[in-house]
Request: fold
Amino acid sequence: MNPQAEELNKLIIKANPAIMGVLSEKGKAIFFPKKGILAQTAEAKGKKINATIGIALEEDGSPMRLKSIACNIGLDPKDVFPYAPSFGKPELREKWKEMMYEKNPSLQGKEISLPVVTNALTHGLSMAGYLFVNPGDKIIIPDFLWGNYRLVFENPFNAEFVTFPTFEGNNFNIKGFEETLSKNQGKQIILLNFPNNPTGYTITEEEAKKIVDIIKKSAESGNKVVVIIDDAYFGLVYEEGILKESIFSYLADIHENILSVKLDGATKEDYVWGFRTGFITYGVKCSENQKAVYSALETKTAGAIRGSISNAPHISQSLVLNAFTSPSYKEEKKEKFMILKKRYETVKKILEEHKEYGHVFETLPFNSGYFMCMRLKDKDAEEIRQKLLEKYGTGVISIGDMLRIAFSATPTEQIPKLFENIYDACKESM
Ligand SMILES: Cc1ncc(COP(=O)(O)O)c(C=O)c1O
Reply:
């Protein structure tokens, strides 16, 4: 093993050996080259003559750039054209951390790592796979899951998904989660996603406490647990009593045997899907040297990033950082939230008013996010989807026996017609 990786592992073992129990073999071996090109370049920053940097500069020392590109960009060229660090732009990492505490009051007083910037959530999840998943490792996850998890974790890392039914009636299936966890002793990898894709369900505050208790008990019994938390739709919760914070806030420091890994980002929180700006943040209890552990985990993460995408887009990081410090940022976000909330409420009202819809489909619990799902009664979902496309000019997603409706992407005034079309298409094929 590379001595730099060994050095990081020693730091981790000294402060909390349980973390070594959840790192994958790749995760144990990875490091960020201390004397690599990036590190040497960083050391030369500010020197009068600097011939280290692997980009091209103009004669005046500013980043070399084409007018036809630069003319569309209002930002300072230095915040756009050069590479960003593999760890991410330092000011952005600090700001995101500060905002995380604001958005999650239960984090107060708890020490978490400095977020490392990823190429948005998918890449962050993939980095979590790199660092924590060995071939054959099981990932415990509710059965309504974002389909892309399979490409992220199964194909490259040979993980095996262990699912349990997401719901018990209209509630999260706490019992199913507990039983599934108890059947998989040793290293446990749990993947949680609220607001959930595809269902649009977020756990209640009570359910969150129960889930946390179950995970804590598992850790107390000696299991080494890594909880991967996908917070892609964070903030889009439309009902009272539903968990508004990330479950990461509760898990971050409850036990030495629990490493919480939070994946979040600007993608959906700030309506910038194509920017590719996400973060990976760690929370774990350590009796000593917690900062050193976080630094080691951040360094390993940056090493994995350096070896995959090298670094995330600089222009996107600068754009979102500027937004976060804009005086109207919070107001603008609220405005967009209210549009999505109105669509959510419109869907709820339609379902309430049109009891006849219940003859052709049953809706799954939803209270947040972008989506809601309906299970069709005695009808083939793919067939209905095709009919909706061909005859009703209406596009929806079919998943097994369900249709997934993105109310987030449907203008409010079209929502009644959307549901009417689904009903008519189902009636027609009876
Ligand atoms: C649950 C979930 N996680 C992650 C992502 C991907 O996010 P990103 O575009 O930031 O990679 C999505 C996008 O559809 C999602 O639904």
User: Anything to note?
Assistant: The radius of gyration is 23 Å. The CA atoms of residues 14 and 210 lie 31 Å apart. Residues 3-32+86-324 form a domain with the Aspartate Aminotransferase; domain 2 fold (CATH 3.40.640.10).
